[in-house]
């Protein structure tokens, strides 16, 4: 089929698993996909105002046509601000009042980006110690990363993603066509996680991205399908071997995230998207690898050129450097002197390195300073 990429399967280490359906336009047959996967009961929908406004009608029509009832819709304000315990509590209260003592089967359906998926997954994990849920990711980041692998949760004033659980969905349905309405900044940010997949696992995929990222940004169906499918295959393979990040394999997916999280925290989570902060973080991690003589400078340059070409930031504003450094030092692991970073041995090959001399990390940060004033 011309515009259809094949599904990817996640096989979990202790048995079971689930398909990730990746197609252009598959929202229209969502109900049918649920039937095929033997999903029973009525749907509790979690989405955000933007996404539901764009796709709610199509989702509802498809479910109704397949004989599913929609029991409740909880539509959130878009953005990270909704990803908190208050939203989680509201969803649980609605679930409890829906049931009203009667026993009927309910499944949760998350339609949206990583925010909706993370909260909804955690609600599904918590209610009655776990009800089935389906991810319908609508951002590139959610399609290639957050909807796959069962990391669910919410933020707490004490930290991002501090409260949560590992809980796997029954099905993931990624309709590539939904990316047409995503703004370009979000698209570029999602591409960082795709570049990360190439960097940690697959040098030829990285080369493919160097040659094809303009086609992704132009939303060419075939290229989009190729990069989402490859990213999901790699993530599925990693989750299949290390579901709960206990064996140091899933940890590799955190490339660029320690520097990135510090940059997000230092700028109050408002200046950068997650992906943009991870782009800068990835360059800092790559330069740390250069300083430790693990990675040739030429390969660092290829990474920088690709991220720059995509249109991502590659510098840290000088005005926030001290705050970034302080945020990194607040990391518990860092203070105990047993810091742990994902570094690169080559494009396509990453490994975890511990106890890096803080002066090297600081140098890596300082190489990426931008003198422009913070806007
Ligand atoms: N669970 C995991 O493994 C994992 C991995 C990476 C990131 N995350 C989490 O994911 C979250 C970020 O996810 P995100 O980048 O998808 O952000 P998001 O969910 O906030 O979505 C970004 C914006 O895009 C809008 N949007 C979504 N789909 C759209 C569409 N098709 N058309 C138009 N607008 C659309 C949303 O309304 C929102 O304003 C963070 O909370 C992060 O912690 C989780």
The shape is globular
Q: Percentage of helical residues? A: 40-55%
Percent of residues in beta strands? 15-25%
* Count of DSSP-assigned helices: 14
Low-pLDDT runs:
1-5
Q: Name the average pLDDT.
A: 93
Report the major sheet.
Answer: 7 strands, mixed
What hetero molecules are in the model? nicotinamide-adenine-dinucleotide
Query: What do we call the CATH topology of the largest domain?
Result: Dehydroquinate synthase-like, alpha domain
With strands numbered from the N-terminus, the spatial order across the biggest sheet is 1-2-9-6-5-3-4
* First-residue to last-residue Cα separation: 47 Å
Could you give the order of the helices and strands? Answer: EEHEHEHEHEHEEEHHHHHHEHHEEHE
CATH class of the largest domain: Mainly Alpha
């Amino acid at each position: 089929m011309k515009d259809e990429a094949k599904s990817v399967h996640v096989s979990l280490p202790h048995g079971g698993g689930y398909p990730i359906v990746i197609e252009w336009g598959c929202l229209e047959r969502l109900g049918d996909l649920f039937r095929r996967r033997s999903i029973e009961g009525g749907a509790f929908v979690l989405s955000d105002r933007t996404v539901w406004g764009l796709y709610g009608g199509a989702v509802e029509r498809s479910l109704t046509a397949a004989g599913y009832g929609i029991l409740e819709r909880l539509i959130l304000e878009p953005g990270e601000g909704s990803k908190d315990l208050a939203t989680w509590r509201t969803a649980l209260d609605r679930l409890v009042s829906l049931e009203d003592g009667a026993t009927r089967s309910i499944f949760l359906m998350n339609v949206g980006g990583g925010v909706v998926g993370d909260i909804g997954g955690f609600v599904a994990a918590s209610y009655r110690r776990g009800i089935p849920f389906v991810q319908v990711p609508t951002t590139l980041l959610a399609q290639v990363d957050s909807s796959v692998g069962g990391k669910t949760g919410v933020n707490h004033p004490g930290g991002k993603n501090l409260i949560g659980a590992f809980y796997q969905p029954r099905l993931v349905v990624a309709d590539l066509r939904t990316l047409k309405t995503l703004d370009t900044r979000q698209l570029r940010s999602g591409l960082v996680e795709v570049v990360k997949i190439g960097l940690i696992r697959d040098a030829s995929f990285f080369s493919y991205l160097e040659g094809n990222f303009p086609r992704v940004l132009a939303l060419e169906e075939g290229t989009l399908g190729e990069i989402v499918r490859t990213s999901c295959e790699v993530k599925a393979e990693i989750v299949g071997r290390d579901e709960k990040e206990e064996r140091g394999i899933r940890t590799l997916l955190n490339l660029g995230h320690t520097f990135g999280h510090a940059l997000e925290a230092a700028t109050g989570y408002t200046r950068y998207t997650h992906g943009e902060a991870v782009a800068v973080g990835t360059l800092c991690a790559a330069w740390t690898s250069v300083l430790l003589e693990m990675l040739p400078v030429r390969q660092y340059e290829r990474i920088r050129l690709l991220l720059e070409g995509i249109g991502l930031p590659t510098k840290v504003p000088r005005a926030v450097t001290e705050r970034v450094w302080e945020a990194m030092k607040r990391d518990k692991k860092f203070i105990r002197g047993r810091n742990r970073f994902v570094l690169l041995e080559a494009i396509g090959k990453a490994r975890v390195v511990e106890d890096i001399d803080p002066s090297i990390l600081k140098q890596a940060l300082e190489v990426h300073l931008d003198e422009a004033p913070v806007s």
